[in-house]
Amino acid sequence: MSKDIWKKILIAVLLFAALLSITAGVKNALYYSQDFQWDAVKALTMHIDPYDVSLSQLARVNAPEMNEFNEYFDSINAPQNMEANQFPSLLFLLSPLTLLHYTAARVVWLILNLLFTAAIIFLLRKTFMKQLDRDVFIIASLLMIAGTPWRNQIGVGQHTLFSFAFFLLAVWLSELGHSEIAALPLAVSYFKYTLTAPLAIWFIYKKRFKEFFISIVIHIFLTIFSCFWLGESFLNMIIKPLKVSSALASEGSLDISALTGGASWAVVLTGLLMLVLLGIALKFDEGYDNELFTLLLLVSLIITYHRTYDYFVLTAALPGIINYKKIRAFYVITVLFIFFGLRVFHENGASIIAAGVLYYALIVGFAACFMMKSRISFSHK
Known about the structure:
Layout: H1 3-31, H2 38-45, H3 50-55, H4 67-75, H5 88-91, H6 102-126, H7 134-146, H8 148-156, H9 160-175, H10 179-189, H11 193-199, H12 201-205, H13 209-230, H14 236-246, H15 256-259, H16 265-283, H17 289-303, H18 318-321, H19 325-344, H20 349-379
Helix pairs in contact: 1-7, 1-8, 6-9, 9-10, 9-11, 10-13, 11-17, 16-17, 17-20, 19-20
């Protein structure tokens, strides 16, 4: 059979798998969307410090406004402890959803996550994937949705789809020359700062300093507002969320903190990696957009706490890898194992180790190919 026929068969299989994945993800989200953080945001809107609650022994708010939330999770034998691991300037972004009762808000959040998925596919085609072959783009998009990470994102009500969609929107608007407007979605994208803070270095590489600095200033002002809202100091509004998030440091999947058991020196290594990425971004001239984006994306998933449900973004690394024949097949094997293999083995210890070996080898291999290409390019200038 011809290559075109094989492509059509693959697309048909992935389309069927994607439909099954959507069905399962939606079903899980309607029943059990525990990472939504509706409770933390609701507490914040009530002038209750969600960080003090998260750090307390009870870790929940017993107030009439919270009864529906608490009673629902108690009824399914999954009582929730509040984990406000986001800065207040970020939590306020979800405050409109607390105008709804929890059960209604959960459905709205599910619908929004499906829309964010569509936005990611659209914006990737407009930005980093605009030069990909149409069939390859379709296959990559269906693969993302068919994979376990995306399905779990939907099912647990996570925020990476939300943040990644707004990051790509910022990139697209910036590419169109709307720098001031692009700063707004960039600021929103920081909700999942463990992913998008490293990705934001792309704006420094592109010398789009206006977008980057305005996005930071927005959060400075929102943090100042939060100080008045909760009657707390500016320093506490930084330290308290970090205390909550630090408790999760060793609970990731393949990241450095998880591999080191939350060792304190892992924070130092994270800082060094960020400095290296920043140095690369400042050193390189334009012409490496896809490669640098891929490097930032790959490293972002190990630099701080991430569970495997965040790895759905791996398909977005394709444009930077596709021209490197030496690692293309290895990239496909790594993605397939993380997307489907881990599920087969129920993410047991051995499968996580195998995924880690594959993933870190992919980063090293891609970085080596990228540096070799850039060195050759520089030598010809």
